[in-house]
């Protein structure tokens, strides 16, 4: 067999294997979903790495569709389906929603901490329950609407 025939045969085998790999890589891409420990930005980076071997005509659009289909946030899915967004707009929305989720958990933890302090004081001083409820509402009004950060000086 001549060198040209061997080279041609090798090229054919390489191209044939490459096509099979593209199919495999595309399947891996389509199966990728956001892990519970990763944010959407990390998920998008992982999808970008997977999309390199898939030969997509428009990888940004495929990544965007995969994020919407396989992200953990139902709120992001709903907002993404409201109107057509670019990948960068989708990632910006995801960052905003993730940040508001983290802040919401922080506020809930602070609220829980305040309630625990109030309940401890009620048990310690035998304060009537209806007084505690009114006091707690007053505390929330001061902290949320008037901008006070701590109500320890008022509540004690």
Defining key terms:
78% helix, elongated, 0% strand, 156 residues, mainly alpha
Description of the structure:
This protein is mostly helical and 156 residues long. It has one domain. It has seven helices and no strands. Helix 2 packs across helix 3 (59-70) and helix 4 packs across helix 5. Mean pLDDT is 76; it is low at 150-156.
Structure at a glance:
The protein has 156 residues and is mostly helical.
Overall average residue pLDDT: 76
Q: Write the element-wise H/E pattern from the N-terminal end onward.
A: HHHHHHH
Count of alpha/pi helices:
7
Using only CA atoms, what is the Rg? 28 Å
Walk me through the topology.
Blueprint: H1 3-31, H2 40-51, H3 59-70, H4 74-82, H5 87-125, H6 129-145, H7 152-155
Helix pairs in contact: 2-3, 4-5
């Amino acid at each position: 067999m001549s060198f040209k025939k061997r080279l041609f045969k090798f090229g054919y085998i390489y191209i044939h294997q490459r096509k099979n790999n593209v199919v495999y890589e595309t399947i891996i891409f389509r199966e990728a979903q956001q892990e519970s420990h990763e944010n959407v930005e990390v998920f998008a980076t992982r999808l970008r790495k997977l999309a390199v071997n898939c030969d997509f005509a428009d990888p940004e659009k495929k990544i965007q569709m995969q994020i919407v289909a396989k992200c953990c946030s139902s709120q992001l899915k709903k907002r993404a389906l409201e109107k057509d967004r670019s990948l960068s707009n989708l990632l910006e929305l995801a960052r905003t929603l993730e940040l508001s989720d983290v802040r919401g958990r922080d506020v809930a933890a602070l609220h829980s901490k305040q309630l625990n302090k109030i309940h401890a004081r009620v048990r310690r001083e035998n304060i009537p329950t209806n007084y505690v409820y009114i006091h707690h509402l007053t505390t929330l009004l001061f902290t949320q609407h008037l901008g006070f950060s701590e109500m320890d000086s008022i509540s004690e």
